[in-house]
Amino acid sequence: MGRVAPLIPHLTESFYQDHCTPAFHFPQKSTNRPDPVSADISGWIDVASPIMMIIAEVTVSVLGEGSSISRFVREAVEALKKSGLKTLPGPNSTSIEAVSIDEILDAVKAAHMAVVDAGANRVVTTLKIDDRRDKRATIETKLRAINQRQA
User: Fold this and answer.
1) What is the pLDDT of residues 37-73, one digit of tens each?
2) Three state DSSP letters for 66-122
3) Which range (10-14, 102-106, 112-116, 137-141) has the least confidence?
4) Does a structural domain hold residue 52?
5) pTM, to two decimals
6) What domain range is 71 assigned to?
7) Inter-helix orientation angle 101-117/70-82, to 10°
């Protein structure tokens, strides 16, 4: 049996700041955007906006390609970034954020096909979708909630 390939390098706060690509820019009340991982971001998110974000987690697993599969992981992550969606690589999967389910599905398809096109003979893609309609949620607001509770 092959190895399961996470889509990400080790996640640190500086990695998040350097590598996450925004897909949707929220109206700003200030030109000084705080770090969404550790700061209060209520000043730059328009909480009254009706736009709901869909957050998804994707893992592309490559089977039967030996123990070194980093080239496939890089291809999948690059395809997700090229989609233009906000991406957050993590230790076992990559989170993505979009306004529509179609954007999520198109990005995941692109990541899957990038790994196939890179020569993988067997690819298993797992997708988890959080389509919350009762409350506005983004990757940043979820991270903020986690960090606030730890303090």
Assistant:
1) 444 444 444 444 456 899 999 999 999 998 888 899 8
2) CCCCHHHHHHHHHHHHHCCCEEEECCCCEEEEECCHHHHHHHHHHHHHHHHHCCCCC
3) 10-14
4) yes
5) 0.65
6) 13-23+48-134
7) 150
